[in-house]
């Protein structure tokens, strides 16, 4: 059996918790790298030893560390141009593993992180993973529309929304950053989620 993208994404392993050997095999068979699914700043052997577990689909859909770090740096550079008093809120509309939020908060210290994950299996594992790592990331089992509507902010607080639906096909990540008193900036994904992005 070959562990290409389709087996953990749409095949028998989609909703199965992967063993470490399967995570390694997916990385080798698909990308020639046993450590391809590096998340939370750790290679698979390290995160697995700390009790972190992923479903097959999450191994494919997650933002890996290299990309998460780059996204975090880019967003921090954008956010630096906005006044941040009080500290901002970062939301991930499709949180999955929570690794994107991990890196966003790493580069935006003092910022509150909230993620929404509709899939109950992914949500439960992610909540447990974040607990095992003692990460201060709030994860809610909610769709992005109701989740985003529930986020409460203070006047002048910066809201940064990470928008990357779990398509499993290397989606184009987009970032939406705005202050509660200013229009959106750096928004390039209006066609995908028009109901949650202000005009």
Describe the structure concisely for a colleague.
It is built from eight helices and five strands. The chain has helices at 6-10, 20-31, 44-49, 56-61, 65-79, 99-107, 120-132, 144-150, and strands at 89-92, 112-116, 137-140, 158-163, 174-179.
Overview of this protein structure:
With 199 residues, the chain is α/β, with parallel strands linked by helices. It has 2 domains: 6-61, no CATH class; 65-196, Pyruvate kinase, C-terminal domain (Pyruvate Kinase, Chain: A, domain 1, 3-Layer(aba) Sandwich). It is built from 8 helices and 5 strands. A 5-stranded mixed beta sheet has the order 3-2-1-4-5, sandwiched between helices. Strand 2 (112-116), helix 7 (120-132) and strand 3 (137-140) form a beta-alpha-beta unit. Helix 5 packs across helix 6. The chain starts with 5 loop residues before the first helix and ends in a 20-residue tail after the last strand.
Give a quick set of tags describing it:
199 residues; alpha/beta; Pyruvate Kinase, Chain: A, domain 1; 5 strands; globular
Task: Please describe the topology of this protein.
Layout: H1 6-10, H2 20-31, H3 44-49, H4 56-61, H5 65-79, E1 89-92, H6 99-107, E2 112-116, H7 120-132, E3 137-140, H8 144-150, E4 158-163, E5 174-179
Parallel strand pairs: 1-2, 1-4, 2-3
Antiparallel strand pairs: 4-5
């Amino acid at each position: 059996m070959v562990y290409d993208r389709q087996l953990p994404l749409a095949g028998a392993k989609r909703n199965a918790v992967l063993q470490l050997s399967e995570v390694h095999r997916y990385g080798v068979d698909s990308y020639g790298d046993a450590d391809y699914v590096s998340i939370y700043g750790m290679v698979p052997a390290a995160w697995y030893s700390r009790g972190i577990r992923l479903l097959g689909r999450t191994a494919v859909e997650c933002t890996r560390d290299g990309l998460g770090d780059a996204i975090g740096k880019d967003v921090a550079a954008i956010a630096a141009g906005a006044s941040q008093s009080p500290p901002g809120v970062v939301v991930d509309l499709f949180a999955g593993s929570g690794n994107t939020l991990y890196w966003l908060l790493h580069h935006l210290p003092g910022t509150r992180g909230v993620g929404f994950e509709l899939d109950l299996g992914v949500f439960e594992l992610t909540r447990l993973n974040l607990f095992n790592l003692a990460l201060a990331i709030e994860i809610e089992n909610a769709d992005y529309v109701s989740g985003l509507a529930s986020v409460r902010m203070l006047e002048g607080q910066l809201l940064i929304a990470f928008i990357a639906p779990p398509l499993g096909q290397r989606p184009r990540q987009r970032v939406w950053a705005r202050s509660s008193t200013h229009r959106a900036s750096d928004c390039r994904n209006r066609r995908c989620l028009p109901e949650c992005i202000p005009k």
